């Protein structure tokens, strides 16, 4: 089986587990007044899980491919040559995402987001630090302002010892 089908199989499995959680476990603790609402907190996860299973099954069954089987092109993923791709960049970004999620509370949103965007740019190959760091800082402050002030959702901007 091709690599894209293996990935689709894992994706369908994740969507099924996510759908099980959305359909059977998320709505049990709702208060009575919310149980009469047409849209529940689990509505969007239910839609996402069903759409994910459908999309994954399309790839898994090969319905997205044309009827005429053609020779693989240079842009297709060849699982025998995974070492030729930038897999370490992808693994580095995934590790950086985990570190970012763990660092949000201790060092605050602003510092962790600036570091995440800057280090992510470095991992992806950006070397113009005089552009990278100001863009990361401006983007971080804009996102913080929109979430904090416009949406009214509290984000701890600074480290816990400064609050």
From TrEMBL:
InterPro entries: DUF1468
Transmembrane feature ranges: 6-26, 47-68, 88-117, 129-147
Superkingdom of this protein's organism: Bacteria
Pfam families on file: TctB (PF07331)
Keywords tagged on the record: Membrane, Transmembrane, Transmembrane helix
Residues of the DUF1468 domain: 6-155
Name of the protein this chain belongs to: Tripartite tricarboxylate transporter TctB family protein
Organism: Gymnodinialimonas phycosphaerae
């Amino acid at each position: 089986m091709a690599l894209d089908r293996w990935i689709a199989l894992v994706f369908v499995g994740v969507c099924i587990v996510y759908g099980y959680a959305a359909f059977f476990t998320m709505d049990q603790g709702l208060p009575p007044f919310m149980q009469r609402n047409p849209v529940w907190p689990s509505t969007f996860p239910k839609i996402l899980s069903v759409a994910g299973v459908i999309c994954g099954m399309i790839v898994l069954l090969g319905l997205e491919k044309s009827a005429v089987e053609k020779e693989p092109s240079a842009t297709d993923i060849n699982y025998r040559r995974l070492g030729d791709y930038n897999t370490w960049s992808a693994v580095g970004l995934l590790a950086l995402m985990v570190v970012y999620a763990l660092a949000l509370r201790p060092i605050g949103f602003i510092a962790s987001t600036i570091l995440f965007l800057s280090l992510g740019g470095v991992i992806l190959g950006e070397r113009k630090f005089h552009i990278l760091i100001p863009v990361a800082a401006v983007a971080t402050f804009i996102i913080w302002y929109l979430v904090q002030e416009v949406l009214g959702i509290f984000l701890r901007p600074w480290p816990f010892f400064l609050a």
